[in-house]
Amino acid sequence: MGPGLVGFMALYQTRLGARSYRFADLKAVLACASPRRSGDELAGLAAQSDEQRVAAKRVLAELPLKSFLEDLVVPYEDDEVTRLIIDSHDAQAFAPVSAMSVGQFRDYLLSYAADSDTLARLAPGLTPEMVAAVSKLMRNQDLIAVAAKCRVVTKFRNTLGLAGRLGSRLQPNHPTDDPMGIAAATLDGLLYGIGDAVIGINPATDSVPDTIRLLQMLDELRQRFEIPTQSCVLAHITTSLRAIERGAPLDLVFQSIAGSEAANRGFGIDLKLLREGLDAARALQRGSVGEDVMYFETGQGSALSANAHHGVDQQTMEVRAYAVARPFSPLLVNTVVGFIGPEYLFDAKQIIRAGLEDHCCGKLLGLPMGVDVCYTNHAEADQDDMDTLMTLLATAGVNFMIAVPGADDVMLSYQSLAYHDILGLRHLLNLQPAPEFAAWLQRMGLCDEHGRLPPPEANSKALRQLFAAAP
Question: Which HAMAP family match (predicted)?
Fold first, then answer.
C-alpha cells in the first residue's frame, strides 16, 4: 500500500526562504514545475510566479518514482489510457530505478551508467508521468544528451532509427489533392534524397475513393522505380480500414492520438479500433524487412483543445499519448510541435523547448520519435527559429523530420522544413538516410556515396526517368 492521501499531501509542500508552498495534488506539482507555456496558462494550471515554479521543481525532485504508480493523475476507473499505463507496467524493467526519486533519476539518466542498451531495457518500466516529471527538471541540453543515448529502430521496407542516420518524411500535400501537383512535389523531394521514413500525404478530404486513388498513385511510383520506402495517406483510421477492404495498396495505418480516453474519443478512436487497424495492416504483409505498420501523430495541447485534459498540464498529457502508441509497435511517431498554435505554444522559445521535451520523452518510453519542426503564421516564431530546433533535434538523434516544398505547406497553411533543410543537416552532421534508401539513391544516380547531390547536368538521366513516370 502507498502512503495514502495524508502522506501524499505531505510530499507536495516545501519551503523557500521564509515562504512555504503547498500544492493540492500531483497534477498541481507537475503543472507548476513545467516551463512556462501559454497552454497551461490558458487552462489556469501554470505556476503564478517563477518562485512557485522553483518550489514545484523542488517538490518534484524529491518525489519517489514509485509514487507515480499509486497517485494517478487521471483516475484508473475513468480512463482506458490510465488502465493501459498501469496494467502494462513492467515491474521487472522498473526495478533498477524503483528506489530513486525523480531528481536522482535525472542524475542517473545523465550518467555513464545509462547507456543505450540500459535505457532500452528500462523503457517498459517507465510510465509517461515519470518521464514527464523528470523532463521538467532538465535543461534543454539535458534533454538533448539523454535523447541522443536512446536508439529506437523500426522496419517496414527499410530500417529507420539506426545510429548515424536521419530519416525524413516527404510531405507532398496539395489543396485539392491534384495528382499532378502531388507527383511534382514528390519527385522534387526524391531528387533531394527525401522520403525514406515515408512519403505521406495529408489528404484535403477524408474520402475513401480519394484515399484509394492517392495510395494507388504513390504505390505505382514506388513499384516502377523499386523505391525502398513506404507510403501513407494520413486519413482517419476508419477510412484506411475501408480502403483496405476495397483492396487498396496501403502500407501504413495513420492516426492522430492523445493522452486521455476522452481526447481520443474526440478523434473518433479508442484502443480497440487502433488494434483493429494494426491487425488489418499487418495481414496485408506488404513490408519487406519488417512489419511495423502504424504511424501516429501527437501534439501538445490536443487534449486541452478537446477539453479532455482532466486538469493535467499539456506536456504530461502529451507524454501519455506516447503510452497509447507504445503497444502498437509503430514504425513512426511524430509530434507536430508548433502546429496547434500560439494558444498552446506561444513563441519560438516555447516551441523549441516542447520539441526537445517531446522527442526525449518519447525516446525514453521506447518510441521511434520524429518531429514536425513547424509553426503557424500567427505564432511568434520564424524560420530562423526552426533552423535552431532542427539542428538541436538532429544532434539529439531524432529518427526523422518532416519536409515540404519550400518549407510552406500550401494545403495545411503552416510553415515546416524544406527538402534542402534535411539535406543540409545530413551534410552538416555527417548523417545518411536509411541504408536501403541510401543505396537506392546511389543506384539511381541521385547522390554519391557521401550523400552529395550530383550537378544537374550529370543528373539529367535520372531526372528524365523520374519525370517521365509522373501521372
Answer: EutB
Asked if residue 255 belongs to a known ligand binding site, the reply is yes
Say which residues have a Cβ less than 8 Å from residue 178's Cβ, sequence separation at least 6. Answer: none
Q: What is the pTM of this model?
A: 0.94
pLDDT number for residue 449:
83
Q: Is domain 154-458 annotated with CATH 3.40.1170.60?
A: no
432 is in an annotated binding site: no
Q: What is the pLDDT of residues 304-347, one digit of tens each?
A: 999 999 999 999 999 999 999 999 999 999 999 999 899 999 99
What is the DSSP-derived secondary structure letter of residue 199? E
User: What are the sequence ranges of the domains in the chain?
Assistant: 154-458
> In the chain, what percentage of residues exceed pLDDT 70?
94
Say if residue 216 carries a ligand binding annotation: no
Residue 71 has a pLDDT of 96
SS3 297: strand
202 is in an annotated binding site: yes
Is 77 annotated for ligand binding? no
> 411: annotated binding-site residue?
yes
Estimate to the nearest angstrom the gap between the alpha carbon of 36 and the chain centroid.
Answer: 21
Q: Is 170 annotated as a binding residue?
A: yes
* CA 261 to centroid of chain Cα atoms: 19
